[in-house]
Specification:
Layout lengths: L25 H8 L3 H17 L11 H13 L1
Length: 78
């Protein structure tokens, strides 16, 4: 399976079932929404720069089941 280079953008009022995403219309879809990539990149870039000034306070969580299950069982035995 080939990965995508950009996110899919749907107008849910015009296409509520997201049926426009078919192989024959994907090229047209890319042309239709490609203008949105530059403004989105600017917004994402501005957000990432704020993370340098204001880093996240909490560390990210790990949802590794190999760690969660033993921790859960050990808390149940206490």
């Amino acid at each position: 399976m080939t990965g995508r280079n950009f996110p899919k953008v749907f107008n849910l009022r015009m296409d509520p079932f997201e049926s426009y995403d078919t192989p024959d219309s994907y090229g047209h879809l890319a042309q239709k929404v490609s203008w949105q990539m530059a403004p989105m990149n600017e917004l994402i870039d501005a957000h990432l720069k704020t993370l340098a000034d204001y880093p996240p306070v909490q560390p990210n969580k790990s949802f590794n089941m190999a760690e969660i299950v033993p921790d859960f069982l050990s808390k149940g035995q206490q």
